[in-house]
Amino acid sequence: MKGILSILVEGINIGKIMIGRKIKEIRKRKGLTLTQVAEKANISKSYLSNIERDVNHNPSIHIIKKLAMVLEVDVRDLLNLKKTKAVETQLDGEWIKFVNELKEAGAGKEQIQEYRTLIEFIKWKNEHLGEKN
Fold it and tell me: Which of 19, 39, 45, 76 has its CA 20 to 30 A from that of 101?
C-alpha cells in the first residue's frame, strides 16, 4: 500500500503541527481577523476559534478546503504537508492495475488531485487522532 500512496501523493510527508495552530499562524501573518476569515469561509467565528485553539481538532476536509481558499494557501500548507523528492516506485501488480483502471475510466488529473487531497486529509487525520489517543 505504501507504494501507491507515495505515487498518488507525490511523496508527501505529514508534519506534526496541529492544524489549528497552523491556520492561526497563517491568518495572523496575512493580517486577517477571526471575523474576516470566518465570514469569507462562511463558518461561524466561534467554530473557527475552536479550530484554531484545537478545541475542535477534527475539522472536515470541506472546512479545511474553504479555509485554504480564504487564506490563499494550498491545503497541504494547512495540514503542514511537505513535498519530498523521493517517490516510491516499487508497486505490486495489483496497484498498477488499479491506476491503469483509473486512467481507462477517464479519471483526469483534476479528479486525481481531489483523491490526493482526500488521501492527505485521511493520513493527517489518522496521525492526528493517533497522537490524541
Answer: 76
